[in-house]
Here is the input.
Amino acid sequence: MKVFTDQELVAAIKKGGPGRQEAIRYVYNKADLRRKVIHFVRNNQGNEDDGHDMFHEGIIVLDRNIREEKFRAESSLEGYLYSICRFLWQNQRRKKARIELKDDPSQMDQIEETTPEIQMLTDEKKNVLQRALEQLGERCKRILELWQLSYSMEEIATEMEFSSAQMARKNKYRCQQSLMKFLEEQPKWKQWLR
Here is the structure.
């Protein structure tokens, strides 16, 4: 695999197309950085799966920030991605935490962490959605994944070999409709995703 400098990675991601995919794959395959993120998450009340999720989500945010000109190159790309992952994990923990209002004002800052049951339900929702996407077939699944990763319609058209962005848009819409129809026909699954 080609070795990229930070400047080459940023340029490839901004340019889009196959170069962008290669650059993102390059970042995704940085095993040392992935281990560092997992280590941080595990040391902060998470597990290995949470660490992998944060790394994946961090790459999505990195990609979007580069394309939206939010990355200022004030630090290395690895340092920037690591900071994103740390922020995402801390933010997720804050969202999951629920503040219990106590009668005693001195205990107002106590936080009750998410229970294992709630975490299990969240994981189950992810699994149900993944299984639902698999029912649509590989093509629809890939289109919806690219769309979720903030790929533009032009980029989806290139990746999926559609003749135009308009065709990509039509196919994305059809895939969304197929997913909704599938879930309507599977009320138990739909209920899980609420």
Q: What stands out?
A: The longest strand covers residues 98-99. Residues 115-194 form one domain. The mean pLDDT is 80. The radius of gyration is 20 Å.
